[in-house]
């Protein structure tokens, strides 16, 4: 059975590119367009990994990660952040240390680099 990845991304083009790309690599992919939907979908599908934009409507990606890491059923799910604007050292440090995220990619990013990190974390 394929590993499930949840993509939380409010830009419809970026979301579609990620969903299509990861699907072609054999992952089951679901998507959410805002932070609240992302949390709800993660609780519903229990993904193997969450790929999450930082700046999202309703709840930021940082808030999504905080809530997922706080919940027993999603505590151990790896979270990888993506951001076009939060690309300073403070944001990266907050993601890694305070939120226990497993990756942080600045947009635009290489799909190959994202795939390599996903494969490191969950296989596939």
Report on the structure:
This protein is 45% helix and 19% strand. It is of the alpha/beta class and 124 residues long. A 5-stranded parallel β-sheet has the order 2-1-3-4-5, sandwiched between helices. The longest helix has 13 residues. It is globular. The model has no long low-confidence stretch (mean pLDDT 93).
What's the total helix number? Answer: 5
Instruction: Please state the average pLDDT score.
Output: 93
Class from secondary-structure proportions: alpha/beta
State the order of secondary-structure elements, H for helix, E for strand: EHEHEHEHEH
What number of structural domains do the residues give?
Answer: 1
Q: Find the CATH topology.
A: Rossmann fold
Radius of gyration: 13 Å
Sequence stretches where pLDDT stays below 50 over 5 or more residues? none
CATH superfamily: Response regulator
Which strand order does the major sheet show?
2-1-3-4-5
Largest sheet: 5 strands, parallel
C-alpha geometry: globular
Quick take:
45% of the residues lie in helices and 19% in strands. With 124 residues, the protein is an alpha/beta fold.
Describe the SSE topology.
Layout: E1 4-8, H1 12-24, E2 28-32, H2 35-45, E3 49-53, H3 61-70, E4 79-83, H4 89-98, E5 103-106, H5 111-122
Parallel strand pairs: 1-2, 1-3, 3-4, 4-5
């Amino acid at each position: 059975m394929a590993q499930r990845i949840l993509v939380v991304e409010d830009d419809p083009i970026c979301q579609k590119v990620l969903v299509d790309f990861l699907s072609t690599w054999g992952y089951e992919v679901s998507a959410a367009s805002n932070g609240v939907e992302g949390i709800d979908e993660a609780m519903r599908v229990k993904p193997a990994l969450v790929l999450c934009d930082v700046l999202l409507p309703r709840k930021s990606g940082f808030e999504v990660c905080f809530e997922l890491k706080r919940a027993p059923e999603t505590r151990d799910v790896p979270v990888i952040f993506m951001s076009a604007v939060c690309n300073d050292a403070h944001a990266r440090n907050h993601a890694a240390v305070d939120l226990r995220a497993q990756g942080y990619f600045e947009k635009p990013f290489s799909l190959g680099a994202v795939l390599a990190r996903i494969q490191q974390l969950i296989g596939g």
